[in-house]
Amino acid sequence: MIFRQLYDPPSSTYTYLLADESSRQAILVDTVFEQSRRDGALVEELGLKLLWTLETHVHADHVTGAWLLRERLGSRIALSAAAGAEGADRLLAHGDRVDFGKRHVEVRATPGHTSGCVVYVVDDHNAVLTGDTLLIRGCGRTDFQQGSAEMLYRSVHEQIFSLPESCLLYPGHDYRGLTVTSVDEEKLFNPRLGGQIPREDFVGYMNNLGLQHPKQMDIAVPANLRCGRPEQAASITAPDWAPLTYTFAGIFEVQPQWLEEHLRSVQIVDVRESSEFNGALGHVPGAMLMPLGSLTQRAGELAKDRPIVTVCRSGARSAQATVLLGKAGFTQVANLSGGMLRWRAQRLGVEGGSD
Ligand SMILES: N[C@@H](CCC(=O)N[C@@H](CS)C(=O)NCC(=O)O)C(=O)O
Ligand SMILES: [Fe+2]
Q: Measured in angstroms, how far is the CA atom of residue 292 from the centroid of ligand 1?
């Protein structure tokens, strides 16, 4: 099984990628709208086919990336029927299975944090994605979205604490940066639900949390009830000045062939040293030399309204150059994938250099 835990810092949300190694079929659980590009890049770089995005519940603190990933990657959307959302491709019920290749997750209804919460148990019962039903040494609040402390107590004891003690629990959030726990650990040490804590004490605890509502709640809940479809879909278009690819490392790239066909419509910035620029590999016709060390100082020489492609020997220094130019306020910047080495390997035209 391929398993990745991904993090969204602003909302402290964990997104999980699970995939079957042989068929490469994958699912993503609890995506975040703003991280869709990152998640899509990882799916592509690992050579996976994203079948489903799943939700553990209708989130109150961030907007799901489900709709956007369906638009971009053709994945389908599944969540609990009890969540009450519109626009899903499949509505899940307790006991359902979601298959990806030879693997699957099992759906368990765990109302409490919200009335539509579910957890996803991995087929071998070695791990469960608990959403906000159980957090590390905590649990989801129960004061909105038809939450109920009584129901949450029952859900945790019946659906999660009944799993093998060694079963790993992966939460939907952690506000301290902790990543994983286990059934055993939470039974012993969860201060709200562990040990012999009776239901009445838990309910008293939950009714006195005194938390402020999540900052994004008024935006997130209505958007998540549409599976993350924006009201104005046009506002989320990707940069369209070139067929850009976005890497998991967070860099936009263009392919050499595209650059050769568009030499005149972009500013080409070569960030190598001048000895390299004038050396054996040569340089892309029309490229300007701005070594990486002086790029920030000299960025004012570049036009803001024309796209920039950065170039170096292998594509590494020029990737960093895109970051520096982004910080300097340039919005249309991409790295030449593979640098001069790939450019030469594809026998594209150069200025200077030797054969
Ligand atoms: N400060 C956060 C609060 C997030 C929040 O309330 N999270 C919910 C999950 S959606 C929760 O149950 N938190 C439990 C806790 O903070 O103990 C925000 O504004 O987003
Ligand atoms: Fe939540």
A: 42
Cα–Cα distance for residue pair 159/256, rounded to 1 Å: 53
State pTM to two decimals.
0.85
Where do runs of H (alpha helix) occur along 124-282?
149-155, 183-189, 199-206, 217-224, 256-261, 274-277
CA nearest ligand 1 atom 12, residue: 140
> 351, 283 in Cβ contact below 8 A?
yes
Pairing mode, strands 252-254 and 181-182: unpaired
The verdict on the CB of residue 336 being under 6 Å from ligand 1 is no
Mean pLDDT of 44-50: 98
Task: Determine the pLDDT at residue 227.
Answer: 98
d(CA 239, CA 231): 20
Q: Would you state the pLDDT for residue 233?
A: 59
How confident is the model at residue 248, as a pLDDT? 85
**pLDDT (tens digit per residue) in 306-333:** 999 999 999 999 999 999 999 999 999 9
Residue with tokens 């050769």: 260
Helix locations, the chain, DSSP H = 36-45, 66-73, 149-155, 183-189, 199-206, 217-224, 256-261, 274-277, 295-298, 317-327, 339-345
User: In this predicted structure, what is the pLDDT of residue 239?
Assistant: 82
User: Does any ligand 1 atom lie closer than 6 A to the CB of residue 57?
Assistant: no
